[in-house]
Design a protein that fits this description.
Layout (H helix, E strand, L loop, with lengths): L3 E6 L2 E3 L11 H5 L2 E9 L2 E2 L2 H14 L6 H15 L4 E8 L4 E6 L8 E7 L15 H12 L4 E5 L12 E5 L5 E4 L9 H9 L3 E3 L3 H5 L3 E6 L3 E8 L2 E2 L7 H20 L1
Parallel strand pairs: 7-8, 7-13, 10-11
Antiparallel strand pairs: 1-2, 1-6, 3-4, 3-5, 5-6, 9-10, 9-12, 12-13, 13-14
Length: 265
Amino acid sequence: MGQVRVAGIDGRIVAPEEATISVTDDGLLRGDGGFEFIKLYDGHPFRFDDHLARLGRSTAAIDLGFDEDALREDIDTALEAFGGGDGGLRLVVTRGGRRIVLIEELPEWPPSARIALITLSPSEILGGVKSISYAANMQATRMAKARGADEAVFVRRDGVVLEAPTSSIFWVSADGELRTPALDAGILDSITRQVVLDGLDANEGEFDTRDLEGAREAFLASTTREIQPVSAVDGTELAEPDGGEASAAAARALAAAVEAERAAV
């Protein structure tokens, strides 16, 4: 999480160090709530409606209602206080009824990432839900770093590749096909993933870890990373560790989508 530049609680802008919620809020005590993180390009929230729709799906899945109109007003207030520039817009709704809007500095990512495969048993109850119960995701990244990698990629117990803790994964197989896990494999419906799929021809399915380990190139895709090539999988360097044609094409597709949306505003 980057340094917070603007903080709003229920529509009231406060100094970040003074932004608080009650210690009795189950969002804090039990990680019970939903969130979204949206990239700001010169103050414009990319794919804003898609993110807000996903927040609605996530909260509906855990029977958590929130006032969308009020949240939209909160966001407008925070963006006005921010004044423009690039950043990250974090939205959180908690079981205690709080609406949290933060505008943060974006993290800096290295040119490529080494990944480690971490076995995971997905929860059917929270499948596809972007909840604030993210302790397992954060621990997976720490486990990967302890193994000399930069990031984890979750794998089901049957060996099917899923996703990274905060990003989707794509790879070019040994036979040259661009592949990515399908949603029904048990992954999040990533906004950036969909932008890539809209721009590139990729096969969505259930793929074994051996397919990823034998990839020619691979990349992670997320709101903050955008497109980040994968250099190694479980210590084995890929043939194109700095990214290849697919990574470059994905980056172009994302850049084109951002530019087209900004031009339409």
